[in-house]
Write a structure and sequence with these properties.
Radius of gyration: 16 Å
CATH class of the largest domain: Alpha Beta
Strand content: 35-45%
CATH topology of the largest domain: Alpha-Beta Plaits
CATH architecture of the largest domain: 2-Layer Sandwich
Structural class: alpha+beta
Order of helices and strands: EHEEHEEEE
Shape: globular
């Protein structure tokens, strides 16, 4: 299954270690964002490796299942979405904050 790994790590040394780790699992698609392909065993392994690298009091790492459809009830900004507000899959309203 594909996952997006998103992180915010303030320490350069820990950030470089995590970056190198994630390169072994997938591709860097944006600053601090990786797309990785993991089975259940690999998912457990990467979680353990991340725990060894980060400082949980200072760092944040999110692992999201990759979803090709926009997530419902969210606000999306950027070149892939423009300014689009999605509400319960029923309405798409342009230029909403």
């Amino acid at each position: 299954m594909k996952y997006l790994v998103v992180y915010d790590i303030s320490d350069n040394k820990r950030r470089r270690k995590l970056f190198k780790l994630l390169l072994g699992y997938g591709i860097n698609v944006e600053l601090s964002i990786f797309e990785v392909e993991l089975d259940k065993k690999s998912l457990l392994a990467i979680k353990q490796e991340i725990k060894k690298i980060i400082n949980p009091k200072e760092d944040v790492v999110y692992i999201f299942p990759y979803i090709k459809e926009p997530i419902r009830n969210g606000i999306y900004k950027g070149k892939n979405y423009g300014d689009v507000f999605v509400w319960k899959k029923l309405s798409l309203l342009q230029n909403r904050e």
